């Protein structure tokens, strides 16, 4: 029989282990003015944000077919890196946009550049991915250039640009902003839904 003192000691050890395992990660780096800051102030800061990353899940429907998978995106001042992993012929695709230079690497070991890379990506997705604008849309703001926006609850809720309609379906505090948590992008029968799991600086 285990003594009461021993049970107490074992219980304390177990509690310490549980608390250690449940300890939350330290708060992420705060870049923006605060998720509760006035939207014009947040938007101005987002329009100059040139480095961030996110992980999430994506669901795509185009040309009567669809797939879902995981997404990792990293933005640097002059370079965008996108990793898509999923079934339905997608396999794994790594996309890099460095200035105007596009390249992709597939899970099959193929490396393609320029027009060949764009054609292969469009073949796999079922539509031409708006890579130049994507870095802005993920943040919930339009890319530089002509656009139409609608606002709700004091922030942008819809962006219409480059033939696409981007709906910000939900926002959540991250990086010192109120950032998109769920996005839906639609164009000519193509639909892409994104759920962001984590934002990082």
Question: In summary, what is this structure?
Answer:
The protein is 23% helix and 46% strand. The chain is an alpha+beta fold and 201 residues long.
Notable traits:
outer membrane lipoprotein receptor (LolB), chain A, 201 residues, 11-stranded antiparallel sheet, 4 helices, 23% helix, 46% strand, alpha+beta, 11 strands
Order of helices and strands: HHEEEEEEHHEEEEE
The largest β sheet comes out as: 11 strands, antiparallel
Q: Spans of 5+ residues with little confidence (pLDDT < 50)?
A: 1-27
For the termini, the CA-CA separation is 53 Å
Number of E strands = 11
The level of helicity is 10-25%
**CATH hierarchy, class:** Mainly Beta
Q: Kindly state the mean pLDDT as a whole number?
A: 85
The CATH topology name reads outer membrane lipoprotein receptor (LolB), chain A
How many domains? The number is: 1
Class of secondary structure makeup: alpha+beta
CATH homologous superfamily caption: Lipoprotein localisation LolA/LolB/LppX
